[in-house]
Amino acid sequence: MLDFEIKDVKELSGVGDSFVNLIYSIAVSNAAGKPVCKRASNYILSEAVYKSGLREPAGPRADRHKLADYAECQIFNAWLRRNITLEKCVEILTQELKNSPGSLKEASIQAFTELLKDVQEKMNVNAKNKRPAITVDAVIKRDDKILLIRRKNEPFKGHWALPGGFVKYGESTEDAIMREVKEEANLDISVKALMGVYSKPGRDPRGHVISICYKASATGKEKGGTDASDAAFFTPAEIKDLELAFDHKDIIAEYMETKCSVKNAKA
Predict the structure, then answer these.
(1) 3-class SS at 179?
(2) 81: domain CATH number?
(3) Peptide bond before residue 132 is cis, with ω within 30 degrees of 0
(4) Final residue of a domain: which of 102, 128, 154?
(5) Which residue of 24, 96, 119, 192 has the smallest Cβ count within 10 Å?
């Protein structure tokens, strides 16, 4: 639907503002029986956030403006993900505007309250029906340096990252990481051990993605491939100064800590 990546739902506040004012104007026009151009004020939207029980998820420091942004993001994100249609948004708003007694402001607050409740219900049901995706990554060491690739695509386009990618259906995770490193860095690897499994839901902006990370050794000359514009080995000190994709800096830090612990145990 959109040909760009959304790294954070909060990025949708600008276009979400336009979407919300569109559905609001249509709903007010339907309720009034004539064309009306109206904007949903920060007051209306922020009050709807409170009444729909979304104040806490919006963040403890959110003021009225931020609460309105939050409402706009949630509504537009639900439409973007096809959890609700524009027509359904208008239907909910129109119904509440027609049925709610009192001023237009009071009716509008109730209308957006019901819309936010409906959006959250659909998003939660949709989330329950989803399953996490599986990726693989590798920590590949050579001469006390660690291999990184520069991502060619979003998310984190241009950032350095550990080599890896999604596991294909019918493919073992070991085969997947060997394929990914070959495609991204032109290296043949030998998987040595499991580094760890990383499953924090927010670690990947594309959704809930679980990464299985391996320790590996490699042969060949590194160079960027299909999904990487570059590939190179970096010292741990050099990596500290880089902004890595996903949680890869944490994974490397864990690797270095484990390595130091093993050395100390042997000593």
Answers:
(1) helix
(2) 1.10.1520.20
(3) no
(4) 128
(5) 192
Tell me the whole-structure pTM to 2 decimals. Answer: 0.55
Whether residue 206 contacts residue 132, with contact meaning beta carbons closer than 8 Å, is answered with: no
The rounded distance, in Å, linking the Cα atoms of 245 and 162 is 8
- Whether 35 and 143 map to the same domain: the answer is no
Q: Of 48, 46, 63, nearest to 96 (Cα)?
A: 48
Residues 113, 206: Cα–Cα separation, whole Å: 28
pLDDT in tens, 124-153: 665 556 678 899 999 999 999 999 999 988
Q: Are residues 142 and 78 in the same domain?
A: no
Higher pLDDT, 96 or 6: 96
Compute the distance between CA of residue 144 and CA of residue 263 in angstroms, rounded to an integer.
14
Q: Which residues are paired to 166 by β-bridges?
A: 135
Please classify residue 16 by burial: count the beta carbons closer than 10 Å to its beta carbon, then call 0-12 exposed, 13-18 middle and 19+ buried: buried
Helices (H), the chain: 13-32, 42-51, 64-80, 86-99, 104-128, 173-185, 236-240, 248-266
Number of folded domains that form the chain? 2
Range of the domain at 261: 133-266
